[in-house]
Structures are given as structure tokens and as C-alpha cells.
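hiii so um. not sure if this is the right channel but i have a protein structure encoded as C-alpha cells and i wanna go backwards to a sequence. like what aa goes where. can anyone help
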């Protein structure tokens, strides 16, 4: 039975930080030992995830082992599960990259984190010492940037997950692998957050909120009174809407083929809604008519090349900016003629909302606690971790934005 977000009593309780019992005397493991825990393992494209016991090795040099308390599913997990990009296929594998939890132990050399810290894993790491991390022109890291092809740890090229029966390696995913009660990450991919921030909500900062809000505030730098079009009203698209609302955009046009997105979009701040299936002309022509020539900013959040072109053409001649956020798994090229760029429209991609994760995400967490993004609005369903396959189907059917999975039941203060 799905647990809806609207259960105010439970939501209120979850706004208090959990008191976590960490390994100590009397426990069956310690920081120096391998942990046996439950994880959701995928063995092939589209196959049901298997909840099973796995072995999680101790963190090595500059690594961190985290106890995951909450995790959710996004379309990147869905695409990896379906195997839409053959280059990402590495099995067996533990998916998941949007989560929150508590540091259980740290490896040699880790000084900025300790056992008991509340933490958020990030797929786009920040070592803080490479030329990329030192530059204010990028949020990519030379060594720990997002890499969907990576399936092992940087330290030694090996896995920290093993099957309980036989000890065979189980591959990692997007620097994180959060579909497990415990996971090991490079310390560059772990962000310490305010212990008063509700971990239930902070899970969303790992991906959709940072990506969408950051695209508005960091990449596009949307100004008050601006006009915005958002193509695709999934969780990332609605995070863009939240960001545009918080920046004082005067017109926020939501574009989606799912009519059910109208009500949710309006709740989040969409001022106008366009369903391409109901139009007799291209979307960009309609948006140009609505805005007197086009919007100043458009955001592509659907991962569809035809949508990229419509988003690009919906912006205003001379100064329009399109930000691409959708994941495009195919090798197809951009559907743009080079001369179209000479009309003054620009197009740019944004990774993790251009946030430098470790140094800037803690501030975003504080901003969200002050209402910059209403995180509870994104959590449409809640289920126990064991029902992860049901959560995937909710996303497949377009019924959920974020289904939050509970990996444990910590005592509350």
C-alpha cells in the first residue's frame, strides 16, 4: 500500500533529525570489518531488482562508508535499469544515486567527515585540489566527475560490494550506489550537511533539486521578471519551476504531453501550461505567440532531441538561452544548423546545476530549509525499501515524481 506524502502527522515527525545508533560494543561489525546488509541488485536490463544480502567492505584510503536511510529513484536510474545505454551495462550492479544517510566510518586520510555526520552522496564529486575544482568556471572534477561508465572505485579499480554467496564482485553506479543499506563512496562524493536538516528531504539534493534549481540560479542566472519555458515536468523540470519562481520569473510556461502534470505544475508555480499533443502547430510557435517573440530562458528536461529543438526555437531571437538537462543516451547529434546560432540564441548543458557539491551544496540545503524549494511537494509516494520494484513501476507509469524508499526505521528525538 503506497504511503502518500499528504500524511501530515508522519511528515511532521520526519522533520526532526533522527538519532542514529552507530556500530559499537555489542554490534556485529565495526569500521574495520565487512558489513552484511540488504541491497537491491540488478542482474540484467529490465530484470526485477533482487533484494538480497551483500557484503560491503570497509572504506579504503579517502573513502567513506555510509548508512543509507532514504533513497529515491530518478529517470537516470530508470534508464540504467532498462539498459537503454549499452555502454552503462555492468552486471550485477547496485543502482541508485539520490539519497541521504549517516557516516558509519571513514578511511585513511579523510578529515572533513567522521562517524555520525549527516551526509548526502553526490554523483558529481569535488576533490577540492585539482585545477578543475580550483576554477570558478566549472563544477566538474578531474578525477571524480560524473561518469556513467565507471563501475569500480577510483582507489584500486575494485568493487566494495560482494555477493554473500561466493564473494563475487557487484559493480557500483554513478559514484554512489544508494540502493543498499550501506554503501562506500569516494570522500569527494560525500557532502556533510546541517544535522538539523531533515534527512527525509535532503535525499532530493543528491540529484533533482540541485540539478533543477542550480540550472536556474547558477547556469542561466534567471533575473526577476524574466520569461521561462520548462520542457518536461518531471522532478527535475519542477525543480526548475521552483527555482524560476524563487527568482521572481514573471511567466513560467510548463510543457508536457501528460495532462496530469497541469495541476502539479500550477501548484509549483507554472503560470501557463502547453500540451504538444493538443496543438495544431509546433510548440515553439505557440510559445513565441504567448510571449511576444519567445522566452528569455528555456530548459530541456525530457531527454528528447526533438524537444531540444523546440526548446531552442522557443527562446527569443537575439538573446534567448536554452539549458539542456535531460539525459540523452543515444549517439544522435543535436538537431541544430550552425547558422541558427547566428541569430543570437545560445544553448548550453548543465551538470548538477553547476553546483560544486561539497563546497556549495550545504548552502543549498539551508536555502531549501528556508523555502527556496518546497521539497515535500516532490515526495509523492513513500514505500519501504523492499518494495523498490513497485517504486520503479510508479515512475514508469508517470505516477510519481519521487517515491521515497525507507531503508530503516531510526528512532526519532
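sure thing!! here u go:
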Amino acid at each position: 500500500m503506497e504511503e502518500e506524502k499528504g500524511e501530515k502527522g508522519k511528515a511532521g515527525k520526519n522533520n526532526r533529525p533522527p538519532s542514529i545508533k552507530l556500530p559499537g560494543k555489542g554490534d556485529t561489525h565495526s569500521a574495520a570489518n565487512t558489513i552484511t546488509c540488504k541491497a537491491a541488485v540488478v542482474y540484467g536490463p529490465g530484470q526485477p531488482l533482487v533484494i538480497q544480502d551483500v557484503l560491503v567492505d570497509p572504506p579504503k584510503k579517502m573513502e567513506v562508508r555510509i548508512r543509507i536511510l532514504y533513497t529515491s529513484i530518478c529517470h537516470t536510474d530508470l534508464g540504467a535499469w532498462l539498459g537503454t545505454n549499452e555502454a552503462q551495462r555492468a552486471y550485477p550492479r547496485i543502482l541508485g544515486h539520490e539519497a541521504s544517510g549517516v557516516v558509519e566510518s571513514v578511511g585513511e586520510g579523510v578529515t572533513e567527515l567522521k562517524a555520525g555526520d549527516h551526509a548526502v552522496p553526490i554523483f558529481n564529486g569535488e576533490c577540492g585540489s585539482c585545477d578543475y575544482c580550483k576554477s570558478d568556471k566549472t563544477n566538474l572534477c578531474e578525477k571524480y566527475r560524473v561518469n556513467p561508465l565507471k563501475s569500480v572505485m577510483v582507489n584500486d579499480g575494485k568493487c566494495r560490494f560482494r555477493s554473500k554467496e561466493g564473494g563475487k564482485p557487484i559493480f557500483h553506479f554513478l559514484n554512489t550506489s544508494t540502493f543498499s543499506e550501506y554503501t562506500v563512496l569516494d570522500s569527494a562524493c560525500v557532502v556533510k550537511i546541517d544535522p538539523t536538516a531533515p534527512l527525509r528531504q535532503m535525499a532530493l539534493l543528491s540529484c533533482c533539486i540541485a540539478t533543477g534549481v542550480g540550472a536556474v540560479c547558477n547556469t542561466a542566472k534567471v533575473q526577476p521578471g524574466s520569461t521561462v519555458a520548462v520542457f518536461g515536468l518531471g522532478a527535475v523540470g519542477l525543480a526548475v519551476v521552483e527555482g524560476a519562481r524563487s527568482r521572481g520569473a514573471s511567466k513560467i510556461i510548463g510543457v508536457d504531453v501528460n495532462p496530469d502534470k497541469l495541476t502539479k505544475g500550477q501548484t509549483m508555480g507554472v503560470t501557463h501550461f502547453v500540451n504538444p499533443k493538443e496543438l495544431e502547430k509546433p510548440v515553439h510557435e505557440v510559445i513565441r505567440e504567448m510571449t511576444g517573440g519567445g522566452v528569455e530562458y528555456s530548459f530541456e528536461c525530457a531527454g528528447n532531441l526533438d524537444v531540444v529543438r523546440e526548446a531552442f526555437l522557443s527562446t527569443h531571437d537575439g538573446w534567448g538561452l536554452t539549458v539542456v538537462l535531460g539525459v540523452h543516451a543515444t549517439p544522435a547529434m543535436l538537431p541544430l544548423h550552425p547558422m541558427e546560432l547566428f541569430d543570437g540564441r545560445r544553448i548550453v548543458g548543465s551538470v548538477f546545476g553547476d553546483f560544486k557539491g561539497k563546497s556549495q551544496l550545504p548552502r543549498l540545503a539551508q536555502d531549501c530549509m528556508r523555502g527556496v524549494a518546497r521539497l515535500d511537494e516532490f515526495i509523492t509516494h513513500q514505500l519501504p525499501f523492499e518494495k523498490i520494484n513497485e517504486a520503479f513501476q510508479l515512475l514508469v507509469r508517470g505516477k510519481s515524481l519521487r517515491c521515497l524508499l525507507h531503508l530503516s526505521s531510526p528512532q526519532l528525538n
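oh and The chain has eleven helices and 20 strands.
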